[in-house]
Amino acid sequence: MAEVSKLWEKLTLEEFSKIDESFLENFRAPGAANKFVAWDPYEHSTRYLKFLLYTIATQQTNEFYKAYKKINSSGCGNPLSVRYSDCDINADYLAAVEEWLFLGTNGGLC
Fold first, then answer.
1. How confident is the model at residue 97, as a pLDDT?
2. d(CA 89, CA 83)
3. Rg from Cα positions in the chain
4. Residue 99 domain-assigned?
5. Per DSSP, what are the bridge partners of residue 87?
6. For residue 78, what is the enclosing H or E element?
7. Residue 49 CA to chain centroid, in angstroms?
8. Which domain holds residue 39?
9. What is the DSSP pairing of strand 87-90 with strand 81-84?
10. How many Cβ atoms sit within 10 Å of the Cβ of residue 68?
11. Which residue numbers in the chain have pLDDT < 70?
12. How far is CA 81 from the centre of its chain?
């Protein structure tokens, strides 16, 4: 069996041991720890990021929204989101659905 790296030992002790109900409710919210997400949307004003997210949301197809609405809960961790086409759109799931649609239209090729 492979030896655990010192980095993962440290993360396990210092970060992963602090996961509780409160952490799970807001881990993706702007300004949160954001060590577990791909981007940190925090700034003094989130208007610009919401504008970008909204603009991208307006350019999506009906197929995108049909797929996005199948996600049970896209609000896990309280991420920055905008409301469009009866969906709470956040950057993580927007990118995931776009990737999923891309792979589906390209025969699963990467």
1. 95
2. 6
3. 17
4. yes
5. 84
6. none
7. 14
8. 6-105
9. antiparallel
10. 24
11. 1, 30-45, 106-110
12. 9
Q: Has residue 69 been placed in a domain?
A: yes
Sequence-distant (≥ 6) Cβ neighbours of residue 35 within 8 angstroms = 15
Contact 81, 74 (CB under 8 A): yes
Are 57 and 82 in contact, with CB atoms under 8 Å apart? yes
Separation CA 37–CA 93 (nearest Å): 12
Q: How many residues does the chain have?
A: 110
Domain for residue 110, yes or no?
no
Domain count, the chain: 1
The structure tokens listed for 42 are 């925090």
| Tokens representing residue 93 in the block | 């799931």
Rounded distance between C-alpha atoms, residue 107 and residue 31, angstroms: 38
With beta carbons less than 8 A apart as the criterion, state whether 13 and 7 touch.
no
Residues 6+ apart with CB under 8 A from 20: none
Q: Which pLDDT value is given to residue 5?
A: 83
Residue with tokens 């995931």: 96
Structural domain includes residue 95: yes
Do 49 and 83 form a contact (C-beta atoms < 8 A)?
Answer: no
